From TrEMBL:
InterPro entries: DUF2922. It comes from the Bacteria. Pfam families: DUF2922. This is DUF2922 family protein.
Length: 71
């Protein structure tokens, strides 16, 4: 099973921008995710087609199962 952490932000145009991290550690806490998102906002290193990221919108983990099919 593959797990991804998706951190959602709002840009200057009010649109949602998602930054995904593959295989996050299992023990991540809400506080650690919030601190990481605050760090990304404060550093200003990410931008989008709608401008800079301005606010945190939310975060979630996504689990998916991948089954290879031999052809």
């Amino acid at each position: 099973m593959a797990k991804t952490l998706e951190m959602q932000f709002v840009n200057e145009e009010g649109k949602t921008v998602t930054i995904s991290v593959d295989a996050p550690k299992e023990t991540l806490t809400k506080e650690e995710i919030t601190a990481a998102m605050d760090g990304l906002l404060n550093a200003g290193i990410f931008t989008s087609g709608g401008g800079d990221l301005t606010l945190k919108k939310g975060a979630r983990t996504v689990d998916r199962t991948v089954t290879e099919i031999s052809i």
